Batch of 2 targets.
Target 1
Amino acid sequence: MELTPAGVGQVTYILPERCVQKKKRDKIKALLAGGIEKPDVLVQGWVRTRRDSKGGFSFIEINDGSCLANIQVIVDRKIPAETVRQLTAGCCVSARGNLTRSPGKEQALEVQAAEVTVHGTADPEHYPLQKKRHSFEFLREIAHLRPRTNTMGAVMRVRNRLAYSIHRFFNDRGFVYLNTPIITTSDCEGAGEMFQVTTLDLSSAPKANGEIDYAQDFFGQKAGLTVSGQLEGEVYALALSDIYTFGPTFRAENSNTSRHLAEFWMVEPEMAFYDLDDNMDLAEEFVKYLLADVLEHCAEDMEFFNSRIDNTVLSNLTHIAREKFERITYTDAIHQLRKANGNFVFPVEWGCNLQSEHERYLTETVYKRPVIVYNYPEEIKSFYMKLNEDHETVRAMDVLLPRLGEIIGGSQREENHDVLLQRIQAKGLKPEDYWWYLDLRRFGSAPHSGFGLGFERFVQFVTGMENIRDVIPFPRTPKSAKF
Ligand code: 4AD
Ligand code: MG
């Protein structure tokens, strides 16, 4: 039985006793980062390549996913020939021996394996990851094997670091992490893009007045998958002050683009007593914090993206982490776009939605930095956004990034009950569907704001990956949910 040396804070905890003394595995990242020779290490992972030398040795490269780099293992002549034959790309092995300085130029350290165990072979006739490089389209067809490529490994480590640093950012600032429901009966964006959740057999569903009778459905009313946790987030912000959600979000929009998924993850902070300026300040600080953190903690993977995927990624991220974001009203944005003299596919006039080409023009050509556009026309934004005194615009804000476009959408929320009710009705929504949301404006209403950051879009931006389908383990898009 072991005790931790000084305990954690005031609390001491007891480590479990090991029944059998077993040799502990060494992760490749730790061995390489240590940078020094070490006797008797145990490396476990998947073989990337094997070369045989004339002297009867074999060199294998093993990757265990802990870092981008492989470790070179020298397979001793004493290892049986039938084991060596099984050491092909994709097989899973344990290799035990001394970690020593390598005479080769390619690596500083290597393992002199005295023992090699093959756990799972990978028949070279059939294992699909034989070549060094495959197209991302091809890899999407083998989503169960693509995590074993350099690119997907690096994407997932960066994604993991970003998720960790999102939680750190908010927890360090006293925000409470909130889990909002995945199944819901309210359409937050009011855009009718909800996937339906039902246990009814739609071919023989019970009817009332010619329509499906959802009173007989599982939840007793029509339900769907959430498009955003915001409305429920507001409920808790008006009690705990600062909360954030970070969860899966679903949209049945038929957008087959490199920036849209039907299932994606969204980070949504919601803050009581924040106005639109406070909201924009938090969004800017948040984005910069995440970029600085990933540059510091994912240096090896970021170098890889810079050399193999997009050679501007490192300089862009460094620049954005340091520079102030531009903030302009929607009306000013329209002025800027009209000055471009109609060089757009989608015509520009006050009241139009900003298209990707407009967002890119503002961030890449006019301001050469991230741009926060605020005060959008009421007509093109959701019902919950606070109406400005001009009665034409709402306190909405979108954060636009170069190359990617919209990464964050947010707003100050309408806290006045009657104005909110009127906007719900004007948008053709049913007030009874939002009764509890309206109630928040009847009991202790407060000014408050929040925003949503699309997690995959952010991972896409950070890594420079072209397609959003390659930054989520199992992408869901129209006509595609195979794995
Ligand atoms: O702008 P959106 O629709 O805002 C909301 O849902 C608000 N309720 C957020 C809030 O105020 N709490 O979505 C927020 C972000 C977008 O800026 C975009 O980055 C991402 O979510 N997003 C998508 N990402 C991938 N695939 C899709 N289909 C996406 N739709 C939105
Ligand atoms: Mg939006």
Target 2
Amino acid sequence: MVRVSLEDLYKEVILDHYRTPRNKGRLDPHDVLLERNNPLCGDEIELFLKFEGDDLQGISFDGKGCSISLASTSMMTEKVQGLSLEDARQVTESIKRMMAGEEEGDMNELGDLVSLKGVVKYPVRIKCALLGWNTLLEGLEEGKPAST
Ligand code: ZN
């Protein structure tokens, strides 16, 4: 029996998203387009968001960069698509806490995203992993209803 460590499993998840990114490409129509980059590594992403009421109806991304940044963003789109803006924000905050090495909250809730936890050991990579998430947080701000 081949012994597969948890770390290997995490790497597989990340590689899978890197090789086969989910929700990659332009989203039309969209409400928000944000372009952000991580100069430390050269990662660049474009994030497309489409809102429907208080929900994040659609999300896609495009860009180039290292495997961590692209895989993390791919996983993010899969995770938050269809969530309410508030839930999407909470997932993002959980990820940021996890990447800061803080209390992790409900890890089951995060699913495959837990695989990003291995990145915490490589501080230089944390910015790569959080590029998409920080961009999403900015985008969600623009999704607040104009009137309540
Ligand atoms: Zn990177």
